[in-house]
């Protein structure tokens, strides 16, 4: 989807301090043999600060940085992957109560680790649909410090970190352009993240823990047994490259125009093999050095990395930032951002 008429007016981030891998190993939470294999250094841990509270803080930060009044927002998309509060309660209204007011449409979107991509695409479409709509707020947030998730062993090749990010998307102006955003589903791989578990009753209703390591291993065992082998994973890989090509084409640029790349905050081997080497790019262009210390932040990975690069001066006017994600489903997503001017908060 071409989105060159959409601008990023501001970013806001809530990123708590990290707990080191060394501490996690000493406490028996993280396997010592994985330290060298994955080369991760820590995970951001929010403690008792809830996802909605982190989202509110990030949104307040975003509005403070750009100076526009929160009540000007026409749409709020609240994006999460994990439980946000009491069952049956809608977390987006927490932000409306304490920040935005009740005039905008507010919707919770749950699209896993690729939620930021789908929310940006939906927000751009919503703003385009009516000339009177100018600004949307996309927030991503999760706190995984709950009994049904072991952040240190939940998935193969990563640890889970807590964070929130807020994006003010505008049709009018901003420090960066959202040039394109695209997603492709691999529906034949939908079983990967549920393999070995019953679909009913839902796991959380019977206090079943979330463990993607076990589910993925079960899927792989089944794939070998029925002869499909690695075919699904080759399809996922091929579609990831296809969605990057689509995002680049819609942005009107080539891969050689890209300055930095943000993939998922995974192990060095995964980031290098599945993303950077597959694109023919060096690891020095990735955000892995930053991501290895904060953990996989669910839908916040790429946006928090963007804020980090802007704040440290590693991205500047004229630079292009490529975001790539893979989420349960399986979906693969990509987006291209061009920096137009230095962000006002870095001046």
From TrEMBL:
Signal peptide stretch: none
Gene Ontology terms: biological process: fatty acid biosynthetic process; secondary metabolite biosynthetic process
Superkingdom as given in the UniProt entry: Bacteria
Domain (Beta-ketoacyl-[acyl-carrier-protein] synthase III C-terminal): residue spans on this chain: 248-339
Keywords, comma-separated and alphabetical: Acyltransferase, Transferase
Beta-ketoacyl-[acyl-carrier-protein] synthase III N-terminal domain location: 110-181
Gene3D superfamilies in UniProt: 3.40.47.10
Protein name, per record: 3-oxoacyl-[acyl-carrier-protein] synthase-3/clorobiocin biosynthesis protein CloN2
Species: Actinocrispum wychmicini
């Amino acid at each position: 989807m071409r989105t060159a008429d959409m601008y990023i007016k501001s970013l806001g981030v809530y990123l708590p301090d990290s707990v080191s891998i060394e501490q996690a190993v000493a406490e028996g939470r993280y396997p010592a043999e994985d330290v060298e294999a994955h080369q991760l250094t820590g995970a951001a841990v929010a403690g008792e600060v809830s996802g909605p509270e982190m989202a509110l803080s990030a949104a307040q930060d975003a509005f403070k940085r750009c100076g526009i009044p929160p009540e000007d927002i026409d749409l709020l998309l609240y994006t999460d992957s994990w439980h946000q509060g009491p069952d049956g309660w809608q977390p987006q209204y927490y932000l409306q109560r304490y920040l935005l007011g009740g005039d905008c449409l507010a919707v919770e979107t749950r699209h896993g680790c690729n939620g930021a991509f789908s929310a940006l695409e939906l927000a751009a479409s919503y703003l385009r649909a009516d000339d009177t709509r100018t600004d949307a707020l996309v927030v991503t947030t999760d706190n995984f410090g709950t009994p049904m998730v072991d952040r240190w062993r939940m998935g193969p090749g990563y640890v889970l970190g807590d964070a929130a990010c807020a994006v003010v998307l505008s049709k009018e102006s901003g420090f960066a352009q959202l040039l394109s955003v695209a997603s492709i589903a691999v529906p034949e791989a939908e079983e990967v993240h549920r393999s070995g578990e019953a679909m009913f009753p839902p796991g959380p209703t019977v206090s079943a823990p979330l463990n993607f390591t076990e589910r993925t291993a079960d899927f792989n065992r089944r794939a070998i047994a029925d002869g499909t082998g690695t075919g699904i994973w080759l399809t996922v890989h091929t579609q990831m490259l296809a969605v990057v090509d689509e995002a680049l084409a819609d942005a009107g640029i080539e891969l050689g125009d890209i300055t930095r790349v943000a993939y998922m905050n995974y192990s060095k081997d995964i980031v290098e093999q599945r993303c950077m080497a597959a694109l023919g790019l060096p690891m020095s262009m990735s955000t892995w050095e930053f991501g290895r210390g904060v953990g996989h932040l669910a839908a916040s990975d790429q946006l928090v990395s963007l804020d980090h690069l802007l704040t440290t001066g590693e991205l500047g006017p004229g630079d292009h930032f490529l975001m790539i994600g893979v989420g349960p489903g399986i979906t693969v997503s990509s987006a291209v951002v061009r920096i137009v001017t230095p962000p006002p908060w870095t001046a």
